[in-house]
Amino acid sequence: MSGFSKDALLAAAAALGVTFTAGLLLGRKCFMHESSLKTFKSHGGAKGDPLMDYVLQNSLREHPVLKKLRQRTLEDPMSAMMVACEQAQLMANLIKLIKAKNVIEIGVYTGYNTLTMALAIPADGKVIACDINLGFVKIGMPFWKEAGVEHKIDLQIQPAADTLDELLEAGKAKSFDFVFIDADKQNYSLYYEKCLQLIRKGGIIAIDNVLWDGLVLNPGNDPETLSIVKFNEKVYRDSRVNMSMITVGDGVTLAFKL
Ligand SMILES: C[S@@+](CC[C@H](N)C(=O)[O-])C[C@H]1O[C@@H](n2cnc3c(N)ncnc32)[C@H](O)[C@@H]1O
Question: Rounded to the nearest whole angstrom, what is the distance from the C-alpha of residue 163 to the centroid of ligand 1?
Answer without folding.
Answer: 13
